[in-house]
Write a structure and sequence with these properties.
The complex is a heterodimer of chains A (104) and B (180). With 104 residues, chain A is an all-alpha fold. Chain A has three helices and no strands. The longest helix of chain A is centred in the last third of the chain and has 36 residues. Helices cover 73% and strands 0% of the residues of chain B. The mean pLDDT of chain B is 85. The chains are: A mainly alpha (104), B mainly alpha (180).
Chain lengths: 104, 180
């Protein structure tokens, strides 16, 4: 039995599900951001897996777009952790529920 | 056959490390598990024939981003707050909901006809960089995106510095100035 593209997609789906669960259900803010990183990783893997099912030029596009997605994830992590530093300094807590003062 | 064995080993490591992120209590252990997961994903990229993407994954994700994450966790000493529970009652509803969603998408994926194309290009460093920096008139034009990305990273860096520094004229900064 050879390696099939569907195995890659199933792996990406599993990692994405774990990442979303981490991002939504964990209360610690660091884990929320790490879950988002995990989900972004899974999307990149899915991108590459689909790229390998396409012929010549289209497959190259599918391998270049994840580079941009990785760079945007870097920018997102940069701003996200700056916000965590800013809020942590005021509240001395990493519980996501203690940051709910913008609730209407 | 050999590729499938390598894939299964790397997939088990990646998924196991992702589960460790979900279940670990200390954020630093979670970050280290995330590094393991990202490195094994880089191995899968290499296995699939995108070695450049695998190297970028190791350098940018497992290197730069996770270094930032561990640095912030250690600077803020995030484990100091040990009263925060790991999960709450809302998690009981979220986990089945996400699993059902994943099962639905999985069914749709399994039913789709997918097969590796024999004519895919191996995304080596030479081919990828030639396409990325092809400034010809009729080229793909990725270099414009690349420039925009540089601008985005610069603005993100400036925003992060402005947000995270102590405000000038605030009580904290004035106290610091008095000490000098």
């Amino acid at each position: 039995m050879e390696l099939q593209p569907i195995f890659i997609q199933i792996l990406a789906l599993a990692i994405f599900a774990v990442g979303i669960i981490v991002a939504i259900s964990r209360r610690n803010l660091f884990f929320v951001l790490m879950g988002i990183e995990l989900a972004l990783n899974a999307v990149n893997l899915s991108f590459v897996g689909f790229a390998k099912t396409l012929p010549a030029e289209a497959s190259l596009t599918g391998q270049i777009v994840p580079l941009f997605s990785i760079a945007i994830a870097a920018a997102e992590a940069c701003v996200g952790f700056a916000m965590v530093i800013l809020i942590f300094r005021n509240r001395e807590s990493v519980d996501a529920d203690s940051y709910s003062n913008m609730r209407g | 056959m050999l590729a499938l064995i390598y894939f299964i080993i790397l997939a088990v490591i990646a998924l196991g490390a992702a589960t460790c992120v979900l279940l670990s209590r200390h954020p630093l252990y979670g970050a280290l598990s995330l590094v393991v997961s990202m490195v094994s994903l880089a191995g899968i990229y290499g296995l699939l024939g995108s070695p450049f993407l695998g190297v970028v994954q190791v350098m940018v994700y497992a290197g730069a981003i996770m270094m930032l994450v561990t640095f912030v966790i250690m600077v803020l000493n995030g484990a100091r707050d040990s009263r925060t529970p790991m999960f709450d009652k809302v998690s009981l509803f979220i986990i089945p909901a996400v699993l059902v969603l994943a099962a639905l998408v999985g069914v749709a994926l399994v039913r789709a006809p997918l097969g590796f194309d024999a004519a895919t290009i191996r995304g080596s460093v030479a081919v990828t960089s030639e396409t990325l920096f092809n400034v010809a008139q009729g080229g793909p034009g990725y270099f414009i995106l690349f420039e925009v990305l540089g601008l985005l990273l610069l603005s993100a860096m400036v925003a992060a510095v402005l947000m995270a520094k102590k405000r000038l004229g605030s009580v904290d900064s004035e106290n610091v100035e008095e000490k000098h």
